[in-house]
Amino acid sequence: MRTVIRTAMVRAWWRGWLFSLAGALLALPPLAVALVSAPPGRPAALRVAGFALGFAVVVAVMALPGAARRGCVRLVNGLLAAGVPAPLEPARSPWAGRLRTAAWLLLHLTVGPAVAFLTLLWMFAGLTLPAAWLGDGGDVAVLVGTVPAPHGWRGAWTLPAGALCLATAGCLAAWSAAALRRAARLLLGHGPAERLADAEERMRTLAVRNRLAQDLHDSIGHTLTSSTIQAAAALELWEQDPEAARRAVSTIEETSRAAMDDLDHVVGILREEPGTARPQATLADLGTLAGQVRAAGASLTLETEGDLARVPATVSREAYRIVQEALTNALKHGTGTGIRVRAAVREGRLRLEVTNPAVTPADPDGLPGRRGHGLAGIEERVGLLRGAMSAGPARDGRWHVDVDLPLRSSP
């Protein structure tokens, strides 16, 4: 354990020092311009002002490209393990990121050279003092003065002094790395506009995933229900009517292939594989859906009124899924006979009605029974389209699912 901790500390120290050295190297271009902006012969105040202005202007120019912030984030994450998120580019405040990038570069390009110089100085002193004492002794030049390191016991103080200098260099590199790590999270991390954009993107992604989960539930649920009925029918007819049993098994194969296509479509979207995408079913495919239900052994009557092709694409796709889920519930909980589907377009609205004989009598209060995921999914789709729905047993002893959807968004 001690070896692991010691290795991690040494690695963190070296990375912190390399990060400071990178700041010193990046500071060379603005430093050169700053020296040109402060020529000798001018008053000291003007030279200081020219130096600071030239340095700041070059740093601001370095922060202008969008790649500058991304490069800073990669550098601080690679050497300091700051965990700064990848920058976003919100259209609302594009200059906010550049200003914070400029502030970060100004901090890095001033603190980095200072830390790199001071750590090198302390490391040089920590190694030179004991070396001079172990040699023939003498004076060691330190900045503007000299430090005596005589040979013999009188110069033994150089050993703890050298260790102190090395420890100071390590602490300085570690402290500066920790301070720059915190500053990087503040200056290079997401600002308010980016956090809002990220939250909106997460909400869109979550909505898409929930939508895909609902679509997959509807498609696979319908296929499993139909396949179960077909399998039961095939077992009953296996001896009496082999040809009908074969047709039932063939229908299971077809519906299973369609379910696999839906599954590939959803997985392709989740994996961002556009090659697997395919057109989603709409009201124009109600005939195919009705054929699948009839092939499952159920009796179904499909009625349409108006021009379903004029229904907006979004409403048409959702309406198809609503009918599909209602039919799945009818097959799962009904008798499989006397199913009626009606889709009508009139007066700018789409009205859907799916009815089937109810297995259980209506509740005394006229309320529907237990509501599963199917009705909840229908309610969610209807709510998103700003429509209305009702589901439950009626006085005629049939289970009704009635949906009313506007074809245009209300102002």
From TrEMBL:
UniProt keywords, alphabetically: ATP-binding, Kinase, Membrane, Nucleotide-binding, Phosphoprotein, Transferase, Transmembrane, Transmembrane helix, Two-component regulatory system
Example of a GO cellular component annotation carried by this entry: membrane
Entry superkingdom: Bacteria
Enzyme Commission number, as recorded: 2.7.13.3
EC main group: transferase
Reaction catalysis annotation: ATP + protein L-histidine = ADP + protein N-phospho-L-histidine
Transmembrane segments: 44-64, 102-125, 157-180
Histidine kinase/HSP90-like ATPase domain boundaries: 316-407
Any one GO molecular function term: protein dimerization activity
Domain (Signal transduction histidine kinase subgroup 3 dimerisation and phosphoacceptor) ranges: 209-273
Name assigned to this protein: histidine kinase
Source organism per UniProt: Streptomyces diastatochromogenes
